[in-house]
Specification:
Elements (H helix, E strand, L loop, with lengths): L1 H16 L9 E4 L2 E3 L7 E2 L1 E5 L2 E6 L1 H5 L7 E4 L4 E4 L1 E6 L1 H8 L2 E2 L1 E2 L2 E2 L5 H14 L6 E5 L11 H7 L5 E5 L4 E4 L1 H7 L9 H4 L2 E3 L5 E6 L3 H9 L4 H16 L3 E6 L4 H13 L5 E4 L12 H13 L5 E2 L2 E5 L14 H13 L3 E5 L3 H18 L7 E3 L9 H6 L3 E4 L23 H7 L2 E4 L11 H10 L1 E5 L18 E7 L8 H15 L17 E4 L16 E6 L2 E5 L3
Parallel strand pairs: 1-6, 2-7, 8-17, 9-12, 12-13, 17-18, 18-19, 20-21, 21-22, 22-23, 23-24
Antiparallel strand pairs: 1-4, 2-3, 4-5, 7-27, 10-11, 13-14, 14-16, 15-16, 25-26, 27-28, 28-29
């Protein structure tokens, strides 16, 4: 009997170590031009997938040897394949809502309050075609600097009987009609929270005009949560997930969120309907954190329950400034921000911080250095969001502290880079300087601020640094330049600081390896290698050989996540 048990154990051990070629692979991708991201072997012709992971890479002949009767064979027909795009900075909840709503700001053009007849007509038509929507959500460009901000009366002309909530393209302001103001409980009486109240735009008589900036947006967001059923919320994030897949995006970091939002992704995961891997931060736009027992309990619950490849947390987002007005407004006193970062780091949370100004970017680097000194060494992966404004003298400090600089190339480039102040000629978007310093770049879109979240438009901008201008020849006073052909912007032949260009390979790596590293997933994502997850994108053209000015014309033909096709271009 003892000998029999030994024989069974030996057979089991042999089965574990039998080469998978004897059983074949589930899927083979052949006849390709596959960029692996592995510096030692950057290109292969074919790869094999078993389950969710890559189990072999090599020539067509080598990979076809793994074919069995049940194996699916995908002929790439010479197309270029890259690792799945890991978008380092998105807002899936906002994007999902806006996908189901109306969009007046897209690469095709922009309808603004300066075109009242067209704006009212478009919103009225959308309302008529969506009679059952309890709240109408939209997206548009409008001025966020008083006295040029729009008023609720224009939206009331379009829809007087239902709440209308219009997201500014930068997601740092909302424009509401009278019904939405009433739903949010915003009246002539001041709001009890001073941070919220000072961001409610009011007229000389104290009446709310309809525009909420920065922290005041949270009042409307809270009111909206009760207006959507669980199925409606799941539909929004499911739609967002599928939309991201269209652009080869297979994993993301959500740069705003809370426990309730994370639970939506978990519910979709459990249904088998989540097609993008998510890591979600705790934070609301320009809302300061307070270490209340409730907040800390939510943080702890999220990181305890959600830490797999599909739904993960343990991340806190700070806003040290906003994104409206002539100059982004400050949100924290330096000492308060540093104290909170120190405390949350001490508890083991990863920190990411939004900064839209050179001085606030410097503040973030200062705080992160202090964290290293005070709390001791560990693998923190501290993140600076929108590192476009990082001063040149702080780049070596960022490198020494191993900071991750999360950037959105599609925000660049105006004649003045990304600077708000037209008199400020400081060079912004220093991609090549950061690369040379050894700082880790993680690229993203900030979708839905960028629409659509096209990584290839962003890569073209990173490689060319061509200047975009508004087609109308003018911009809003204090408007946020959002680039990438949004809101009617058009490409010029001029170039902004060409010495800061990076190569196509560097841009791809920042959108794959860099972003995977930023989300603690580099051992599973970011490159195409044996043992890693089969997340990849098949492209319509070879972005490594086309003219740099043609990269943005790239389409995604197929997107795979965990070895499954989640998007296929219609033929």
């Amino acid at each position: 009997m003892k000998k029999r048990r030994s024989l069974v154990s030996l057979c089991a051990a042999v089965l574990v170590f039998v080469p998978s070629a004897l059983f074949g692979s589930d899927t083979l991708l052949i006849h390709g031009h596959i960029y692996t991201g592995n510096a030692k072997a950057p290109w292969v012709q074919a790869l094999a997938i078993s389950g969710t992971r890559i189990d072999a890479m090599g020539t067509d002949e080598e990979i076809l040897a793994r074919k069995q009767p049940q194996t699916q064979v995908i002929d790439l027909q010479g197309r270029t394949v890259i690792p799945g795009i890991s978008d380092s900075h998105v807002h899936m909840w906002f994007g999902g809502l806006e996908l189901l709503g109306f969009n007046l700001s897209s690469p095709e053009g922009s309808i603004t309050p300066d075109q009242p007849t067209a704006l009212v007509s478009n919103i009225k038509a959308f309302a008529a075609s969506h009679p059952n929507d309890k709240v109408l959500i939209g997206r548009a460009d409008f001025n966020t600097t008083p006295p040029w901000t729009p008023s609720h009366e224009l939206l009331d002309r379009a829809v007087p009987d239902r709440p209308v909530v219009v997201h500014h393209t930068a997601e740092h302001a909302l424009w509401l009609n009278a019904k939405a103001l009433a739903l949010a409980g915003i009246t002539d009486q001041p709001l009890p929270d001073p941070a919220e109240e000072r961001n409610v735009i009011r007229d000389a008589f104290g009446h709310p005009t309809g525009v909420l900036l920065e922290a005041a947006m949270a009042v409307m967001e809270h009111a909206l949560q009760n207006r959507f059923s669980m199925e409606e919320k799941l539909a929004a994030v499911r739609e967002a997930s599928h939309h991201l897949n269209r652009y080869g995006i297979t994993s993301v970091v959500n740069a705003t969120g809370n426990l309730a939002e994370i639970e939506l992704y978990a519910a979709l995961r459990d249904r088998g309907e989540l097609t993008v891997r998510t890591r979600t931060s705790f934070g609301a736009v320009a809302v300061n954190h307070h270490l209340t027992p409730e907040f800390l309990a939510d943080l702890e619950k999220a990181r305890t329950l959600y830490h797999d490849d599909w739904v993960s947390a343990n991340l806190v987002k700070f806003f040290v400034d906003g994104g409206t007005g002539l100059v982004p407004p400050l949100t924290y006193q330096a000492k308060d921000y540093k104290h909170l970062v120190l405390e949350l780091d001490k508890r083991g949370f990863q920190i990411m911080t939004h900064a839209y100004r050179p001085d606030t970017s410097q503040l973030v680097v200062d705080a992160y250095e202090e964290v290293e000194r005070a709390n001791g060494p560990r693998d923190r992966r501290l993140r600076l969001e929108h590192g476009d404004f990082l001063p040149a003298q702080d780049i070596p400090r960022a490198a020494r502290s191993s900071l991750i600089v999360s950037m959105q190339p599609s925000f660049c480039c105006d004649e003045n880079g990304s600077n708000y102040d037209p008199k400020d000629r400081t060079t912004t978007d220093r991609w090549q300087s950061l690369e040379k310093s050894g700082t880790r770049l993680a690229f993203g879109s900030d979708w839905p601020c960028i629409w659509p979240p096209d990584p290839f438009t962003a890569m073209q901008e990173a490689v060319t640094r061509q200047i975009w201008k508004p087609a109308s020849g003018s911009e809003f006073v204090g408007g946020v330049f959002d680039g990438a052909g949004q809101a009617g912007y058009v490409l010029t032949k001029d170039v902004y600081t060409p010495e800061e260009r990076i190569t196509v390979e560097q841009a791809v790596n920042a959108y794959t390896q860099g972003s995977a590293y930023a989300r603690f997933s580099e051992d599973r994502l970011g490159t195409l290698e044996v043992g890693k997850e089969a997340d990849l994108a098949v492209l319509s053209q070879d972005i490594f050989s086309v003219k740099p000015e043609e990269i943005s014309k790239t389409r995604v033909v197929t997107t795979m996540v965990a070895g499954k096709v989640v998007f296929a271009e219609e033929k």
